[in-house]
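Here's my example:
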Amino acid sequence: MNGIARMLGEVRGCLAALALALALVSAGQAQARAVQRVVDGDTVRLSGGDSVRLIGINAPELHHPRLGAQPGGQEAKDHLQDMVEGKDLRLEYDVERYDRYGRTLAYLWLDGKLVNLQMVSDGYATAYTVPPNVKYENRFRDAETEAREASRGLWAHGAIPGLHDAPGTVIPRRDWARSGPDGRRTGIILTVLGAWLLAWPRPLIRLFLGAAPRSTTVRASLGLRLLGLLLLGATQL
């Protein structure tokens, strides 16, 4: 009987793992959505009003609050517009679903083609990696190198004008974990053997630490409690 119970337990564990894997896969995708308007070379607005920032790339700005329209911004927008405006796209998500402006972060797929990658490959955007959204990082980097060497798109000018970041810009994981792209503390990242497991959001950290007395002993106790929750969350992934 003990052997049968153990076997049933293993079967239940396998089924639970399979269900979790399927849930994660389905969570990374969404149904097709129509593009209502292209805002610039890396941002679109969907039917229903949702604004989507293309993950992993950066194009010259058209509506920068300080710099206004950057050189190459209109060309990048026109190129993306020719590809996607009025068409139904499939959205694929990565780890983070929204940026600090409330825009949805997504990879856009059109007829089996990754639009984000195509923008880089055609020379109208550069690779721009912000961990933990790194699923296609290597493909973006390779596409940028090829586009630059072939002088495609905006690279015909010798560099993509309007972009001050180095080609293939990557915000390091440790910097992202400590402070977000806008300089704010965003949370804690837990990694094992270099692989990202989970990010603990800033509000929850503040709940445990931000309102705590400035006593070292009390903060140490709350810190240990938070670490326990982090480890518990990691073991449940």
Remarks:
- The two ends are 31 Å apart (CA to CA).
